[in-house]
Amino acid sequence: MTNQENPFLALAAPGIAGLTPYVPGKPVAELERELGITGSIKLASNENPLGPGQRARAAIAAGLDELGYYPDGAGFALRRAIADHHGVSPMAVTIGNGSNDVLDLVARVFLQPGTESVFSAHAFAVYPIATQAVGATARIAPARDYGHDLAAMAALVNERTRVVWIANPNNPTGTWLAADALRTFIEALPKTCVVVVDEAYTEYVSEPDFPDATRWVESHPNLIVTRTFSKAHGLAALRVGYALSDPRVADLLNRVRQPFNVNSLAQAAAAAAIGDSEHVRSSVELNRAGMRQITDAFKRLGLDYIPSVGNFITVDVGRPAAPVNEALLRLGVIVRPVANYGLPNHLRITIGLEAENARCIAALEDVLKA
Ligand SMILES: *Cc1c(COP(=O)(O)O)cnc(C)c1O
Question: Which CATH number does the domain housing residue 332 bear?
Answer without folding.
Answer: 3.90.1150.10
